[in-house]
Amino acid sequence: MLVAALVLAHCDGGEDTSVWDTGCDCDAEDESELIVDGCGEAWGHHTICIESTEKDWRSLHEDPYDDDAIRVRLWFNDRRPAQADLKIHGGLSRTFKKKSYRLTLRESVPPFAVFGAEEVQRRFVLQASWVDPSFLRNWLTFTLLREAGGMAPRVDFAQVYVNGSYHGLYLLIERVDALFLERQGLETAAVLYKAENHNANWRDKADPLAGFDVQEGPDDGHDDLGELLRRLTRTPRTEEAFAREIAPWLCLDDFMRWQRVHSFAQDYDSFTKNYYLYHDRVAVAGQAAFAFRIISWDADATWGNYWDGTPVPADGSPWEGGDGWYGGKPWYGTDGFSPRLFGVPSYWERYRADYLAALATVWQPAVLQARVAAMAEEIAEAAERDLAHWGRDRDFGAEVARLLEAIAVRHQTMVSSLTSAP
């Protein structure tokens, strides 16, 4: 069953005619029934069809670092067409042959229910998963973090078509925005910082905004972030001082969950970037104490995968041994706060106990491997089609096998290192 339609073939517009002025004289009921071959069949996940003028599509890709958006028409599964803005997404990923994209529904368009009938989303990322040919590392890591009680976007899968032609398999990732915060039970009148580069290293600095981008909240000031970093760096390393000076400013449960999951996943790229810091904006206005919360973002450099997609041994650690990496250990990352927090005996003992408990139960290799294998089976045909379409010299089955092995190796590595730690 074809689930989406491209109206361009039914409306005389020509290559450079705007998709919003195609000459269609169709009411909504007729438009929803216009179906054209070339936009994909229904499968177990999502089908997304994008219609753009050829001129706009070329201009979007001429300079991948240009942050301008183009206006597109979007079909999501069997919904009627919607207006949306599309731009290229990512940092390093902008250099890859297969691009990632951000989609934002126009305000006049009702939000889509993507991850549940009772929820709605307006902004999405279509991540190319070029770094991860298994397409599963983000999905696995974020799933484990949410199940542990942390915050991370949900991930699904979509086959994407552009102007009637197949474009690839993509990760469909919910954006961190006001609707996301609402779904987490958080205030939407928020301050939200995104860690964009490795200067967001959890250490005090002259410019607290170095490494961060303001996603929500005022564009100037940032005394809140500066005060957080000062406390994390300068508070005496005792349980009493941390409870008094840091706990009201940072949700330490969040921080420890985030460290457990990302260190277990052997994350090479998320301890000093690729996360959000949130707090309620009202608390700042009232100068009251509040706790920053952490939201994860981007976890494809995990489970034996380096940040550029190069395979690495899963029993290794990119941060172990010190020399410039703040004396990291296998069980936490490269940020500047972890060594201080886990240098306090009560926090370390609690952290290690929770870590070992997860490894003995929900993080057992057989449990995780079964979940990964089941999802791999669901997306295998789509993933193999994508890799062939983009000329990738990678075998999907071999990539999944490498991920399954990495899960077992990481489990053994973390059990060994945690049980032998002082």
Structural class: alpha+beta
Q: What's the Cα radius of gyration?
A: 23 Å
Task: Give the distance, in angstroms, between the N- and C-terminal Cα atoms.
Answer: 60 Å
* Main beta sheet strand tally, sense and closure: 7 strands, mixed, barrel
Distinct helical segment count: 12
Strand order, largest beta sheet:
1-2-3-4-5-7-6
Mean pLDDT: 85
The strand count comes to 11
Order of helices and strands: HEHEEEEHEEHEEHHHEHEHHHH
Q: Which runs of at least 5 residues are low in confidence (pLDDT < 50)?
A: 1-37, 321-327
Oligomer: single chain
Helix content: 25-40%
Strand content: 15-25%
**Shape, please?**
globular
Write the layout of secondary structure elements.
Layout: H1 28-32, E1 46-51, H2 54-62, E2 70-76, E3 82-89, E4 100-105, E5 123-127, H3 137-147, E6 155-162, E7 165-174, H4 178-183, E8 190-195, E9 212-216, H5 223-234, H6 239-245, H7 252-264, E10 275-280, H8 281-285, E11 293-296, H9 338-341, H10 345-360, H11 365-389, H12 396-420
Parallel strand pairs: 1-6
Antiparallel strand pairs: 1-2, 2-3, 3-4, 4-5, 5-7, 6-7, 8-9, 8-10, 10-11
Helix pairs in contact: 10-12, 11-12
